[in-house]
Amino acid sequence: MYVFGNGESRSKINIDSLSGLKFGCNAIMRDYQMDHLVCVDRRMVDEAVKSNANQHTIIYTREDWIQRYEGIERVRTVPKLPYNGMTRPDQPFQWGSGPYALLLAAMKSKGDIVSLIGFDLYSKTQNVNNIYKGTPNYAKAESRNIDPRYWIHQIGMVFKCFPKVKFNIYQDRYWELPDYWNFSNISLDNLNNL
Fold it and tell me: Most buried pick, 62, 69, 158, 177, via CB within 10 A?
């Protein structure tokens, strides 16, 4: 079972060569077939629905947008959060596609290892770290990088709420696990080992 973020580290991976259930975010559907696709931005949902390449992919979006896609059976709402939090990053509308894709995979995991690929969190430059930057519905390539604090908190909450699920994070050699993710159900491995 794989969950794909759109961080630039993912560009080194041939996703088609991986077998198993695949969960992806946003524009990954331009390049690869996913079983489950999370798009919490309406523009990305519109693009995914119009894409003829992914007619069997189940698309998930926010409850706020679901009426817009009434009658389209493959569009569903993202799962409810498995916890109640009091801070802004804990509000469902603050969750991004990546954390929701990971939550969905954790909920569907039945003893499978959930492997995370392309969840870079940080940029190696001052600019946004995303494979699709500069393309329709994405930030310009020269846009400033995004503060990853919300992602770190939200992904950490998935790890915390699913202690029986084993999460394996594949990353570049020098990538560091956030301190907040100090959970026994997480392991970190090099992308070259995929």
Answer: 158
